[in-house]
Amino acid sequence: MVYNLTECAALFFAYAAMGWFMEVLYMGVRERHLTNRGFLLGPCCPIYGAGMLGITLLFQGSHYGYWHVFFSIILLCSLLEYAVSALMERVFHTRWWDYHDMKFNIHGRICLETMLPFGLLGTFALYRINPFLMMLFHRIPGYVSGKLVTGVVVLFLADLVISVCVLRNLSLPDGDADHTAEISRRVWEDLKKRLG
User: Fold this and answer.
1) Which among 188, 69, 165 has a CA at the least distance from the CA of 121?
2) Is 93 helix (H, G, I), strand (E, B) or coil?
3) Are the C-beta atoms of residues 180 and 58 closer than 8 Å to each other?
4) Which of 17, 72, 110, 193 is the most exposed place for a label (fewest CB within 10 A)?
5) Ramachandran angles phi, psi of 174, nearest 5°
6) Which residues lie closer than 8 Å to 53 by C-beta, 6 or more apart?
7) Please, which pLDDT band fits residue 8 given cuts at 50, 70 and 90?
8) Of 159, 176, 130, 187, the residue nearest 8 (C-alpha)
9) 3-state SS of 128-153?
10) Segment 70-74 long-range contacts (CB within 8 Å, at least 24 positions apart)
11) Which residues pair with 111 in a beta bridge?
């Protein structure tokens, strides 16, 4: 299947929202309280959307076996996670995640414990969730789906601009640690003061 721009955007935002939900749920169980796990204010983790969209476009219509796809997804997700971690640390001088305390990590940015689930979930999403999402998406009339996706893009871009502006003006914690909860708390506090 060849995806058009609207379908690509819909997949990006669907997986960005599912990734955010998965992160919040996983960390909520682990830490016993809910925290916004995203870089943005809204329920969106763009790294998941970008990762799954990249996987989808790379493997659309391919005839590779499941094992080839599984290991390719592990490699692609690991490269993306490492690059995004390094970029965000360079831009904002802090870390959103850190795997130093886990075995088989590389610079605390990626680790084996997350690579395997990404491979499994990515493979499952590619072969099972994508067709389901596209079936749902195509049930929406074209003129409605186009406007819906455009609205989500506008909200996403507004969230991105606000989040980056607020983060650039905050004094964020340094060091090799997962500061996501602290960053999220400070961003919301700063935003409340500004709107206040």
Assistant:
1) 69
2) coil
3) no
4) 193
5) -95, 175
6) 8, 11, 12, 15
7) very high
8) 130
9) HHHHHHHHHHHCCCHHHHHHHHHHHH
10) 70/119, 70/120, 70/122, 70/123, 71/119, 73/118, 73/119, 73/122, 73/123, 73/126, 74/115, 74/116, 74/118, 74/119, 74/122
11) 105
**Nearest residue to 82 via CA among 39, 47, 44:** 47
Name residues whose C-beta falls within 8 Å of residue 174's C-beta, 6 or more positions apart in sequence.
93, 94
Amino acid at 111: C
Decide if pLDDT at 182 tops 90. no
Other CB atoms within 10 A of residue 145 CB:
17
Do residues 41 and 90 make contact, with C-beta atoms less than 8 angstroms apart? Answer: no
Average pLDDT of span 33-39? 80
DSSP structure class, residue 127: I
pLDDT per residue as tens digits for the range 79-99? 999 999 999 989 888 888 899
Contact 81, 47 (CB under 8 A): yes
Query: Which residues contact residue 83 at a Cβ distance below 8 angstroms, ignoring those fewer than 6 apart?
Result: none
Which residue in 2, 13, 127 sits closest to 57, CA to CA? 2
